[in-house]
Amino acid sequence: xxxxxxxxxxxxxxxxxxxxxxxxxxxxxxxxxxxxxxxxxxxxxxxxxxxxxxxxxxxxxxxxxxxxxxxxxxxxxxxxxxxxxxxxxxxxxxxxxxxxxxxxxxxxxxxxxxxxxxxxxxxxxxxxxxxxxxxxxxxxxxxxxxxxxxxxxxxxxxxxx
Length: 161
Description:
Layout: H1 2-15, E1 23-34, E2 38-49, E3 55-66, E4 69-82, E5 86-97, H2 98-109, H3 113-118, E6 120-130, E7 133-142, H4 143-152
Antiparallel strand pairs: 1-2, 2-5, 3-4, 3-6, 6-7
């Protein structure tokens, strides 16, 4: 009987059924450097691990879109431990070419920062590792979703009795 229970646990465990996908959000975007041809941004991913155990992130590849047009691509390679039931911040680099900068700057000068934010999307893939097995996780983040999620998190005060 013990062998049967162990076998069932082993099959489910290594099949990946026990690893919940992390939730990815953008914590911060900062200018990391400017040259004549491009701007370097540091984007900080806020990754929440909903599992009751630690998971390692081995690799992240991502694409930055503005208004459904590809603006930048990149990858992060390392080994970051996502602690159980907690948030981990992972900084990644994004490089924007001069042609894309002109469009963004012109919108900023016109006071259309909200328009910029609502049209930013980041899609990508992360490779997670738990107990020696890799799991691929695809993610998609929109600024609009972040704004809506922040509004959902607002708590209504309890009525006074």
